[in-house]
Prior knowledge:
Blueprint: H1 7-16, E1 29-30, E2 32-34, E3 38-45, E4 48-55, E5 60-67, E6 70-73, E7 90-95, E8 106-113, E9 118-126, E10 128-134, E11 140-146, E12 154-161, E13 166-167, E14 182-183, E15 185-191, E16 197-203, E17 209-214, E18 219-224, H2 231-235, E19 238-242, E20 247-251, E21 259-263
Antiparallel strand pairs: 1-6, 2-3, 3-4, 4-5, 6-7, 7-8, 8-9, 10-11, 11-12, 12-13, 12-14, 15-16, 16-17, 17-18, 19-20, 20-21
Amino acid sequence: MRHRPLLAAAALVLAAAPGAVAAGPDLGTATQLNAAHxxxxxxxxxxxxxxxxxxxxxxxxxxxxxxxxWGIPLxxxxxxxxxxxxxxxxxxxxxxxxxxxxxxxxxxxxxxxTRRLAVERKVSLRGDFGFDALSxxxxxxxLIEHHVASDLSRYRVRAFDLADGRLLPGxxxxxxxxxxxxxxxxxxxxxxxxxRRVYTLYTSQEHPFxxxxxxxxxxxxxxxxxxxxxxxxxxxxxxxLGNGGRSLTIVGGAGAGPRHVVDTSTLRVS
Length: 270
């Protein structure tokens, strides 16, 4: 079950998130993404955007300037960033400084090939879309679509075929609850080691939930947490995978609050 989120609390958290520029459906952008051995720094440069790749010692490995104003996509209200494919070949950038107030008529994302920092594809879609995830092979781009102007927390998940350059038909939903609208604000995220499964924690008025996106199978599952779970703890919660990805542990912010463990095979919560 997904219900109307704690709008006031979520807005306060978002306002404090580093790099965040919006409080509606658009979570905004950040300037840096840290990967295993490199970091990507993205900043405005005149009418364009400077993209710099730095090594572990801070040395510049590659740099380029691309047309337009872009940033690293924020994927939670607490400042978590994403956009780099599991194989490191693609980096997706989101529009910089677009408040999405309340909904954008058109949305754009830029896909870069990281070795040359060359533009692989510019994605332009009618409607309000934001980055969600990439499949491990970089073939599918997952998007969050906001489509209800009267409720900025309502969303749906869509898939975009990067090879064909088209938005795939249909919405990716939990087939067990296919008719129930998706509503919430994301507060934490973690992905499996192979990049296939993306777990996102959402805050909600009745109870929080974890949205599981299988980026290979184009499938989604919603894992409800107990209604007794503290909303305050979830707003700053930490998630981590253990036991080779077989368990997902959720702990309230700063180690406080309730602790839940999800069996990632059965999706049962303890």
